[in-house]
Every structure is written in structure tokens, then in C-alpha cells.
Design goal:
Length: 287
């Protein structure tokens, strides 16, 4: 697993100044920056002979990363996954929906546990309940000139092309709805790296008074919103689950009183429904 024989993997040598540990799952070397004179990053230091004397263990706050056992106490005080003071816009379960008082959690079962007969009965009930509803959705696949050059970059792989087409279509639909303009705040839900807000900002060029709030519940690496330094655009990132997010208490929104446009690309069906409720509530009590 170590990088002692990099040519065996057919990937060349690790980038200078980066970790020399070969990540088999990703078929490439680790890209983390290493300390001066070191061959491996802190996460993979156990692979180096000089580090074998120190034991690394899983972080009890987040098992996705490791820490030296003898530095655990120090690490817990600064770990990004530690419990932090809740901001004013955090209201526990504000978007969780009303709980049915008659609902007994012990009676809830996963669909996968239902028998074939029970599943058929459930499907019949759902079809009956949806009779008369206009459930036919028309595809609105569009594009936007802001992504023209990126879409035609020959260096793009299939994955990059897919995401760019999706982002271009979202921008095209936002513009069609006449929501792409100055003096407003775009709230990107499930922002991830912030690529969608990035392209919205590119499309708006030098539009005045444009604010972006990027909502993401987990810590994200390689964020692109930190690269924007335009005087007319303001980017703010909130690490919070949308289940607990109260838009009306976000300082930027309450201060600037700008119209709010909700956007998103990485949301599941349930989260999309929640976002609809959040935006509806915002329109009732705010701009």
C-alpha cells in the first residue's frame, strides 16, 4: 500500500511536496501536503518507518480520520467535528415537520421488510391516493452561455461533463424564471464545494448587491467559494443541517432585506420538499 514502488501502480511518482502513500481505492497517491522533511501526511504517517513507534487511532468524534493516540486530548479540543455553540439560526427540528401524536415509532418498519403482498397493497393505496393528481413533469433541460467554454473543454471527463451540463441547465432555468439578476441573495442548499453558486456568480458578472449563502451540513474540502473576491459578491458558508435551519434568523438576510432565491443540485426528494417549505415560510415573513 505504501509508495515505495510507485511505478508498480503505473501512476508515476507522487507530486512533489505531497504524500507518498498510494491509495489503492482511488488508484492514485494521496494529495495531502506533507511537513518539511516528511514523506507521508499525518493521516498516513503510520506507513513510514520513522513513525511506527507512535500509534494512530480513529477519532472518537469522527471515525473518518485518525489521530496520534498521545495527542488525542489536544486534538479533541480543535477537531472540526467537535460540538460547537449553536448559532441563532439553529432551531432544533424546525423543518422536521409536524409529528403525529398518534404515531408510535415502534410500529414504523422499513419497506424492505414488507412481504410481496403487503408491498402490493401499499402500491394500490398510493395509486388510489394519487388519482386525479397532475403528476406528469415536463423536462426543462436547458443551458447557459456562462458555461460554454467549460462545457467544451477537451480535458473534461465524463463525470465533469455530466456535472457541467446539470449546472448549465439549472442556470438556464433560473434565467428563464427571471430569477438571475442583481440585488438578491442566492441560498444554495446542499452546497458541497459550492460549484453551483460559483457558476451563478460567473453568469451575473458585475451585477450589484449579490449575496450567496451556502448551506452544507458537513465539512467540505476543495471549496470554490473561498476563491471569490469580487467586490459586488459576498459569499457566506453555513455548516448546518437544513432540518434545523431558520432562514429568518440568518444575520445577512435579516440585515440586507434582499429577495431570496433558493437553489440546489445535490438534494434528495425529501430535502427538496423541506426546502420548498423553508422558502414558502420565508416568503410569508420576509422578502
Amino acid at each position: 500500500m505504501a509508495a515505495s514502488a510507485p511505478t508498480r501502480h503505473g501512476t508515476g511518482f507522487p507530486i512533489e511536496g505531497r504524500c507518498g502513500y498510494y491509495v489503492e481505492k482511488k488508484k492514485r497517491f494521496c494529495r495531502m501536503v506533507v511537513a518539511a522533511g516528511k514523506r507521508f501526511c499525518g493521516e498516513h504517517a503510520g506507513a513510514a518507518e520513522e513513525e511506527n513507534a507512535r500509534k494512530r487511532i480513529l477519532c472518537p468524534l469522527d471515525p473518518k480520520h485518525t489521530v496520534y493516540e498521545d495527542q488525542l486530548a489536544k486534538h479533541l479540543k480543535k477537531c472540526n467535528s467537535r460540538e460547537k455553540p449553536k448559532p441563532d439560526f439553529f432551531i432544533q427540528d424546525i423543518n422536521a415537520g409536524l409529528k403525529d401524536e398518534t404515531e408510535i415509532s415502534e410500529q414504523l418498519v422499513p419497506i424492505s421488510s414488507l412481504s410481496e403482498e403487503q408491498l402490493e397493497n401499499l402500491i394500490k393505496k398510493l395509486r388510489k391516493a394519487s388519482e386525479g393528481l397532475n403528476s406528469t413533469l415536463k423536462d426543462q433541460i436547458m443551458s447557459h452561455p456562462a458555461l460554454h467554454d467549460a462545457l467544451h473543454d477537451p480535458k473534461n471527463g465524463d463525470s465533469a461533463t455530466k456535472h457541467l451540463k446539470q449546472q448549465a441547465s439549472i442556470l438556464g432555468n433560473i434565467e428563464k424564471l427571471k430569477l438571475l439578476g442583481p440585488r438578491r441573495c442566492f441560498v444554495e442548499f446542499g452546497a458541497g464545494k459550492g460549484k453551483l453558486s460559483h457558476w451563478v456568480d460567473i453568469a451575473l458578472k458585475d451585477a450589484e448587491e449579490v449575496h450567496f449563502i451556502l448551506v452544507e451540513k458537513v465539512t467540505t474540502r476543495f471549496k470554490v467559494d473561498g476563491k471569490h473576491r469580487k467586490k459586488n459578491s459576498v459569499f457566506e458558508r453555513l455548516q448546518i443541517d437544513i432540518q434545523h435551519l431558520c432562514l429568518n434568523k440568518i444575520p445577512l438576510l435579516s440585515k440586507e432585506k434582499l429577495p431570496v432565491v433558493g437553489i440546489g443540485k445535490h438534494l434528495c426528494g425529501v430535502a427538496t420538499g423541506v426546502i420548498g417549505d423553508i422558502m414558502w415560510a420565508k416568503n410569508i415573513s420576509g422578502p
